[in-house]
Each structure stands twice: as structure tokens, then as C-alpha cells.
Amino acid sequence: MASLSPSPSQSDNNDIHPLVALKRRIAALEEENADLRVRGLPGKKCESDVYYGRPIRRLVCLTERVEDLAAEFDRRIGLGATNESDADTMDSNDPDENRRYRSFKKLMIWCPSARKLLRSSAEHEVLAFAYSKLNESSDGARGDDSAGLKCAVADWLMEGTPAPNPAIHKRDKSGRGFYHDVTGRLMCPVDYDWSNPTVRASIRDYHPDFHITACSWPSFLYKDGCYDPQNPTKDLFKGELLVKAFKRVFTSPSSTDEEQPVDSVARSTPRRNSGERRTRRDVSTLLNMRSIQPRAIAYVSVQLRFALLSSGSWRIIDDEFNNQEFYDNIVDYLELPPTPEAAKEVDDLLLWWNQGVFGRKYVSDYRPQQANQMSVAMTLAKQRRL
Length: 386
Known about the structure:
- The chain has 18 helices and 2 strands.
- By secondary structure, it is mostly helical.
- The chain has a two-stranded antiparallel ribbon with strand order 1-2.
- Strand 1 and strand 2 (321-322) form a beta hairpin.
- Helix 2 (18-39) packs across helix 4, helix 11 (240-250) packs across helix 14 (294-308) and helix 14 runs antiparallel to helix 15.
- It is globular.
């Protein structure tokens, strides 16, 4: 494991050494040339470029600035990496640096605008301005999603039987949070028993034995809010409200009412005439997201918790609850399983999500067929050995 120097300060980020910038440009060109050799010339880009930085909060990172992610790559180039592949192998002793670099890799995948910038020869001032616009766009998308979920969550909860009392208002969040029994139950850490009046009172009174932190999973992450201490991963990330919130952000508001996969509507509605056209595309289509991404689940989990809160303004730390830590815990669980058994469990979970959100749509993307193990490949292999 290579030992890396400390992360650059904010002032370093604003004054990238020309040599490092040149090496980054060379490394990017080498990576681009390698991609062209392997995949051929790319086709025409889709209209997702108009989204600019809007994928960043949804699929890359919760709070970090684009320039900080780029600076982490620059630092590795400055330490001797000749291209992105070399930088991948330069693990740091600082987990935050490794986490930042993994986010940089996601940025290169999901944000075409940022990828073009980093592979360009633009001057520092141009890059700084472009980064600020990407950050502004990314935060704007997060704000739009927060506003949409604030109203949607109120509607969903008010549809319950019996209806919540007092009512949960769409525009006013002041009555939500732990002071409302419905939202409090959903937000309650699974380590505490919300049905116990003493526990509810202790949480509301900030009793020191009942901290609300990112060290505990909120109940809404589990199917029916049921947590088994003997099997803590059972039904984790299968909460009904979580799935609804995901569909509200990434597919369409109407898809949240569907119990079957989204594409099942095609089987029950007439085909459109050849002259009809779909005039709107959902977020997942605009982002070309053809399978469920772990960071999308983490992002929606944070957004859903914020929608259940009484707080009207976005904060990284709300009382003692750190949203960044909450997000990182989910990303680590889904992206860095420590054993083959854990990886299989995560793979099964993501398949469950893909089937529930996309159905048969994109099935070849989220569960590609192992063609080299199928009968045609086996037959041809045997024929070549004869």
C-alpha cells in the first residue's frame, strides 16, 4: 500500500500547480485513448448533458465540492500516478482520501460535463468558474428533490388508516419529526422501542441514554420497520416508504403508486399510436441510469429522513445526527462488502431493487447474462478443441 501525503488545503485546491495539471491532462488523454481502442468511437451523446451537475448529489457524493474531488486525483498524479489506472492502486492511509477518490471515479462516470472539463486544457480560472456552476447545479437538484419529497411524504402518510392525528401538512414541516407519533416512529432508531411511552418521552427530552445518531439505522429503512438483532441485515433497505421515495426522485411521481414493476403499466394500457410521442423523460432516463446505484439509495435515504424531520432547512448535522456519516455508512455497506457472502447478500438486495423499480426494463443491464457459460459458447468451445 502506497503511503500518500496529507490532503491539500483549500488554498491548494485554488492554485493547482501547472505541472500537476499538465500530468492530469496527459493521464486523462491516455485513459481516453485506451477507451477508444477497447470500445471504438463513442456514439452521439444523449441529452443528459443538459443536466450539467444535477447527477452529482444523486449519484456521486452528498456534500463534497467538485474541485475537492478533482484535487484528490491531482494529488495522486502529483505523487507519481501516470494515469487513472495507476491512481486507482494508490490507496491512502486516510480513509477520507480513499472515499473522496471513489467519489471522483463516480464523478467521471455520471457527470459528462465534469469529465470533459478534467480532460480539457482549460485554464485554472475557467475550471474554477465551471466547478462553481456544477456545484450550484448539484445543490439545486438536491433542493428540488427535498421540496418534492416534503409534499409527497405528507400525502403518503395521510393516506394511512387511520389517518395521522394531528394531520401532517404538505407545506409546513413544523409538526413532523419526533414530536409526531407517525414520523417519529419512522425515524426512530431500530435500537429503541418507539411503542414504549418511556422511550418516546426520553427521545423527545434528549435523554443521554437515547441519542439519535448515525450509529443506528432509522426504522424506515426496514420492511415494516421490523429489525431483528440476531439478523440485522434482514429486510434492510426494503422499507416501503424508502422505495416510494426512490421512485419519486428517479422514475416518476405516478410510479410510486404501482405495486408491480414500473413497466407493468405497458401490459395494461393500450399502445400509443405511431404519431404519439413521450414528451417527458424521468430522471433515471436523463441520467442514463439503467440499474440501481448504491449511492442513489444512500441519497434517497438521507432525503427521506430530512422529509420526515420538522427542520425546514438542510443541514449536514441535525442535532447529533450526521447526515454525511449516515450516507457514508450506507455507501460502505453497499459498495464495500467485506466477504463473498456479504457481496452475495448485497447483490441479491440490488436485484430486488432493480426488479421493483425497473422490472423487465434494463434487465440485461442490471443482470447481464453469462454468455460464456451458455450452450452456444460451450458448443463452440468444444468444436474448437476438435
